[in-house]
Design goal:
This protein is of the alpha+beta class and 404 residues long. 33% of the residues lie in helices and 27% in strands. The protein has 13 helices and 20 strands. Strands 1, 2, 6, 7, 8, 9 and 20 form a 7-stranded mixed β-sheet that branches. Strands 11-14-13-12-15-16 form a 6-stranded antiparallel barrel. Helix 10 crosses helix 12. The longest helix is centred in the C-terminal third of the chain and has 18 residues. The chain is elongated, with a radius of gyration of 25 Å. Bound molecules: flavin-adenine dinucleotide (FAD). The site of flavin-adenine dinucleotide (FAD) has 39 residues, from helix 1, helix 2, helix 7 and helix 13. Flavin-adenine dinucleotide (FAD) binds next to helix 1, helix 2, helix 7 and helix 13.
Length: 404
């Protein structure tokens, strides 16, 4: 015997819940079920943002917001004009959750715990009569005249509309590919770089504003760079990892990273500055203080890498040493050998091809009455609350159109 619903939501994650709740609020009479393969729902929300859930970002203009999406920039313009980060704040406020803005623009619940978001969703779902069915791993689905027939490991469901919100599950992508959808092959995004290099060996925890480039490519980014015990992390690195997700995958994560610790100052400009310092600070020891706006430990390490001995005075700096130091400061090359997971947030680039989704409705252009929301689509963003914003926006628009 099959179980009948008006709408089935495949996947009990952020996108699935947001879609289900918005459908039920617009059309309380619809019979809605969320099918979740796991023992619990919203498991990624729970661990998100280091357990605090970075819900969205304080960037309220759609044209600005889309710039944070390496994949989806063009396609999200329309959707963000209908449901943007300001709408997210309002939505959560209406549902009893107040969000706060941190200095860098990231937004979290004021309680600083992701449990607040989970409780909000579970309470709303309960109040609206949405059925949450756990341990239901979807094995197949097909369109049967006027219904979607969805088979799980346990039973069979029938529904008029099917919302696909299974995140980055390869099995669901394979099923969709079998039904005619193009799936852009998945690769990781938002990762940190493994670097073994004497210059940063003992500098774990040191952070500096830097510009980084992947040698031989157009990939580059600026921002805080954090030295970790395995290499480099921080916003500058994560940006390169997101924009370079495919290119760096193709390089098997083996490449040369060029770091400019002085950002806008190039090697020639730096050399000029060092010559001035040689005059002005002649009697002082070079390693004593960093003339630049980064920790002295990093300065000492770069000075040493330029072949300058610890007690050398500025006056004794040779031309070759000046050039070597300028090179270290503005164009230091670091060999990257592999990547590590950024624990706060990681996502998958790839998924349902953008050209096959109608972004006015979030409906499939290939399969009737099938809608998409969240990470299942080939959309992803840099870290900062943007990935959830994609889930909320897609879920909201899908909901409006499922209801019709
Ligand atoms: C550690 C970590 C921290 C993060 N922190 C943040 C953050 O703070 N801010 C931010 O914006 N983004 C963050 N992200 C990214 C964000 O979590 C995702 O972009 C978001 O969860 C995507 O939502 P989704 O609903 O599309 O997919 P998911 O959250 O992955 O949900 C998909 C659901 O579908 C279920 N499912 C899959 N296959 C099946 C099947 N066959 N049958 C039934 N159910 C199935 C899964 O079990 C899962 O519950 C983080 C990611 C990670 C990994």
């Amino acid at each position: 015997m099959s179980k009948n619903f008006d709408v089935i939501i495949a996947g009990g994650g952020a996108a699935g819940f947001f879609t289900a709740i918005n459908i039920a609020e617009s059309s309380p009479k619809l019979k809605i079920a969320i099918l979740e393969r796991g023992k619990e729902v919203l498991s990624k929300v729970r661990i998100s943002g280091g357990g605090r859930c970075n819900v969205t970002h304080a960037c309220f203009i759609p044209d600005d917001l889309v710039k944070f999406y390496p994949r989806g920039e063009k396609e999200l313009k329309g959707p963000f004009n209908r449901f943007c980060s300001g709408d997210t704040i309002e939505w959560f406020e209406r549902h009893g959750v107040e969000l706060k803005i941190e200095e860098d623009g990231r937004m979290f619940p004021i309680t600083d715990t992701s449990q607040t978001i989970i409780d909000c969703f579970l309470e709303a779902a309960k109040k609206l009569g949405i059925q949450i069915l756990l341990g239901e791993s979807i094995q197949s689905f097909y369109h049967n005249e006027k219904h979607w027939k969805v088979e799980t490991n346990k039973e069979v469901f029938l529904a008029e509309k099917l919302v696909m919100a299974t995140g980055s599950n390869p099995k669901m992508w394979d099923l969709l590919a079998g039904m005619g959808h193009t799936i852009v092959p998945p690769v990781p995004s938002l990762f940190t770089f493994n670097i073994k290099d004497a210059r940063i060996k003992d500098l774990m925890g040191v952070s500096a504003q830097a510009s980084v480039k992947v040698k031989g490519t157009k990939l580059q980014a600026s921002g805080p760079l954090l030295i970790t015990h395995w290499g480099m992390s921080g916003p500058a690195i994560l940006r390169v990892s997101a924009w370079g997700a495919r290119e760096l995958f193709a390089k098997s994560y083996q490449f040369t990273l060029q770091v400019n610790w002085l950002n806008d100052i190039d090697t020639d400009g730096c050399e000029e500055q060092l010559k001035e310092l040689k005059q002005e600070q002649a009697k002082k020891t070079i390693t004593k203080f960093s003339p630049y706006d980064f920790p002295n430990r990093l300065w000492q390490s770069l000075v040493s890498a330029a072949g300058i001995v610890p007690d050398m005075r500025w006056a004794d700096l040779t031309k070759a040493q000046t050039q070597a130091l300028a090179e270290q400061l503005t164009n230091g090359e670091f060999q990257v050998n592999g990547k590590s997971t950024f624990k706060e947030e990681f996502v998958t680039a790839g998924g349902v091809a953008l050209k096959e989704v109608n972004f006015k409705t979030m409906e499939s252009k290939i399969l009737p009455n099938m809608y998409f929301a969240g990470e299942i689509i080939d959309i992803d963003a840099i870290t900062g609350g943007f990935n959830f914003q994609n889930a909320w926006t897609g879920g909201y628009i899908a909901a409006q159109n499922v209801v019709g």
